[in-house]
Each structure stands twice: as C-alpha cells, then as structure tokens.
Amino acid sequence: MRKSIGFLAGAAAIALAFSGAAIAQQKAPEAKKQVVKKAPSPCAGLDEAACKANTACTWYRETTTKKGQKRKAHCQKKPTPPAKKAPPAEKKK
C-alpha cells in the first residue's frame, strides 16, 4: 500500500510539471499586423522597347549564372541614390 501511494504521488508530480509547461507555452493571441502593400513598380512587365524609353527603368538581358541557371530578360527600376546629407555647419571662431 505504501508503494502505491508513493507511485501515485510521483505520477501526480510529473503530470503537474508537464501541465505547467504546456500552459507556459500557450501564448496570448497576437493582434494581426497591418500589411501595407507597395505600389507596383512602373517598370514591371514592360517589354524591351518600352523599358528603354522609360528613364526610370533599366533593361537586363537574359544571362546564365555561374551555377548554370538562366535568368530571363526583364525590366527593372533603377536604384534610387541615397539622400545626401547636409554639409556640417562651420564653427565660428
């Protein structure tokens, strides 16, 4: 009888430990983040002639990578240069 009481107490302790871990893993429901979609690129889907006519776009010809994968020819927006910083103000002496 003593062995069965000790066994039951041990089993209860283990069950309690696992249930506590399961409760700790449950998280409060998170609010959904608002996803803001960017406007499509003005260069997306243009053919070669239209791409070359647009000054904001660059035409990339079909190429093969070093790994042997082919990249299709496509039009892509030119990268925008980073904003220039204002020159530091001169100190008066």
N-to-C order of helices and strands: HHEEEE
Shape: extended
Strand content: 5-15%
Structural class by sheet pairing and helices: alpha+beta
Uncertain parts: none
Percent of residues in helices comes to 25-40%
- The strand order across the widest sheet is 1-4
Sheet with the most strands? Answer: 2 strands, antiparallel
Annotation, overall tally of beta strands: 4
Number of helices: 2
**Averaging pLDDT over every residue, what do you get?**
78
Write up what this structure looks like:
The chain has 93 residues and is an alpha+beta fold. It has a domain at 48-77. 32% of the residues lie in helices and 13% in strands. It has two helices and four strands, in the order ααββββ. The strands form two sheets. Strands 1-4 form a two-stranded antiparallel ribbon. The protein has a two-stranded antiparallel sheet with strand order 2-3. β2 (63-64) and β3 form a beta hairpin. The N and C termini lie far apart (95 Å).
Relevant terms:
93 residues; alpha+beta; two-stranded antiparallel sheet; 2 helices; 4 strands; 13% strand; extended
What would a concise description of this structure say?
This protein has 93 residues and is an alpha+beta fold. It has helices at residues 2-25, 48-53, and strands at residues 57-60, 63-64, 70-71, 74-77.
Helix/strand layout:
Layout: H1 2-25, H2 48-53, E1 57-60, E2 63-64, E3 70-71, E4 74-77
Antiparallel strand pairs: 1-4, 2-3
